[in-house]
């Protein structure tokens, strides 16, 4: 009986022991989950006396949307920007993005994931504007205001603190990183300047143009401010610099700066001192100051210049300048008169003319012979001696300016487009500047029957390596027979520009086979005529873009003489019926090297004199009163 009673007593105890162990396991799991939650999200509040459920929901990491948008201002190639935006708790950002996306957007929202969608610049602007409007309507200004904070393009990879209205809620926003890729050669890069990482990144390899830029602002520049400093908090905002550089142009990247600017010549660095940037968190850009940014071969010859802003360490000035600086390279393709003008002199005039001669020219990749050749034009643009960046660097000099422009503003080949010029300049303004700088006397051609008895003068450019005019003597005789005084000139890189300019300006017409020598048309008086002889091979488009359009923009008459198969020596190199005769433009897909070697440098020309005489008569007719 005792043994049986003891068994009945131990049975309830065994059940209670099992319940205690089960309760311990449940309690342990709860503690483990709580510790895991707090360790994974340290800034989240695990419990809220008002709404524990809402607090736990708020502790979860919000989803983000990665937006792939196409820039409409990038030309035909287009730039692609990737914006990373965290999702708001209330779903207002999600709703605004979905509403603004339209037909182009395919958005799927999944918590703790990043979704890719495609949209245009206009749609992205609308999506950014809606959260800002929601912030104004929101009474507490927490969720919506945090997402639409108008910061001034923080450097990629850095972090900034959002508005902190109280100690209850702190929001840390990851700065968006924008990656722009265009089908062109690397011409400029922008890298993060966070103190804990190296300043700068290696340039992207290959033919693609890779630029790492800051997040575009979502408000007008004059309204943008820095977010409050982490230590300061409150409502204090510091005004930060607008973007230092513009990468939108298809020919060149321009950095236009004002303020305390220090040029560390030894490092080829321009430092803009900006207290709002902090000790090491300002903007950082790299540019090659030459307007052929899509040409990898060319841009590889150009010295890279770094432009950055800082609120901390800056080099000490060894010389201060009252005049602004314009920085450019005379490397690249210079030495060819076409590129001397199209890549340097015309863009330099467009950029520096506004300063009325009070501008300091800062040059990279300097060649002394080039400075001597174009000395009069350079002196007409600036009354200060040019500054050689490499020489100043070797001397350890730091030059300080109040204004600086790095790189040149370039439009089309040899053309200044008035609608794109900040000063309303156009191509005739440049040719007028050249005539004044070189003291060229004629602003109009000779007119037939003007009573002077002077014959109009026609100059033929003689090439001596490629694209030779084989029957030059016959062309000269034909010109004299119709009534011209004919002159022959060999354009050479070593020719004195003043002497060449005086000779060309004395003429009323210029004739030559497609090539750099036709650039001498800049010295012709307005109203004169340019005749371009275009080699066989479907090169009309190139001839028109390089010389035809510029000639008309300069106020010249233009005639394009297109060579027939029988006038080209290609007929002696390829069999009849070859594709080079039947469909030459289809061969252009082989690339520019094929065009240059085969269609440009691979043929000489003997014009049909009888056919060409009609062109000479048309030129003469252009000179009639």
From TrEMBL:
Metabolic or biological pathway, per its Swiss-Prot or TrEMBL entry: Glycan metabolism
Entry's localization field: Golgi apparatus membrane
Superkingdom field: Eukaryota
Principal location class: Golgi
Single GO term (MF): pentosyltransferase activity
Pfam families cross-referenced by the UniProt entry: Glyco_transf_61 (PF04577)
Compositionally biased tracts (Polar residues): 90-99
Domain Glycosyltransferase 61 catalytic: 365-531
Composition skew (Basic and acidic residues), residue ranges: 167-176, 220-235
UniProt xrefs under InterPro entries: Glyco_transf_61_cat, Glycosyltransferase_61
Biased composition (Low complexity): 177-195
Region (Disordered): 66-85, 90-109, 116-242
PANTHER family: GLYCOSYLTRANSFERASE, OS01G0118400 PROTEIN
Name the UniProt record assigns to this protein: Glycosyltransferase 61 catalytic domain-containing protein
Taxonomic source organism: Panicum virgatum (Blackwell switchgrass)
